[in-house]
Design goal:
Length: 86
């Protein structure tokens, strides 16, 4: 494939709804520059398990919501006096 032969890759452009072809080395340099300029830190532990536990807890909590509130919906009423003003 020509991309592999030329050590290039296709990725989404930063702006707009388009794709760009970049040399792989240039893409990797952009990623490293972004990580260093935004003060990302390397984690000494793998947070995956605690994240999954937290996410599972959120799903269980959401399952106890009234049906109207699932999926980000808010409660509505045909009787306006039953809802408090926000």
């Amino acid at each position: 494939m020509k991309l592999n032969d030329n050590n290039a890759m296709i990725t989404r452009a930063d702006k707009g709804n388009s794709l760009v072809i970049l040399p792989t080395e240039q893409y990797e340099n952009k990623i490293e520059q972004f990580i260093h300029s935004n003060n990302f830190l390397t984690s000494k532990t793998n947070p995956t398990e605690s994240f999954q536990t937290c996410e599972e807890g959120h799903k269980q909590q959401q399952s106890t919501y009234p049906p109207q509130m699932k999926n980000g919906n808010t409660l509505t009423s045909t009787h306006p006096h039953l809802l408090s003003k926000v």
